[in-house]
Amino acid sequence: YKWAYNGLIAGTDPVAVDTVCLRIIMEKRKLMKGEPWPLSPPPLCVAAADKDYGLGTSNWDNIKVENYGWEEELLLG
Q1: Which end of the chain has the lower number of beta carbons within 10 A, N or C?
Q2: Whole-structure pTM over 0.85, yes or no?
Q3: pLDDT digits (tens, 9 = 90+) for 23-45
Q4: Where are the alpha helices (DSSP H) in the chain?
C-alpha cells in the first residue's frame, strides 16, 4: 500500500529520520485499521542502528521535529 504523504522528511541524523518515517507509517496503519497494527516482522534495524552501532538516535524524546506548512494528516501523533 502507498499513499501521497505530500511531505518532505530531512535531517542530519539518518536514524532519527528513519524513526520519524516509521512513526508516520505506524500512525497511517493505525488510521487505516482503527487500532494498532504492528509491522511484521518488526523493524528492529532502526533501534539496532542506534543502540548497537551508534549511528544516530531512535529515542523520540531526543528527536526535534520542525514542521513548516500543513498540519493535516501530519501523522506524527
Answers
A1: N
A2: yes
A3: 999 999 999 999 999 999 999 99
A4: 14-33, 44-51
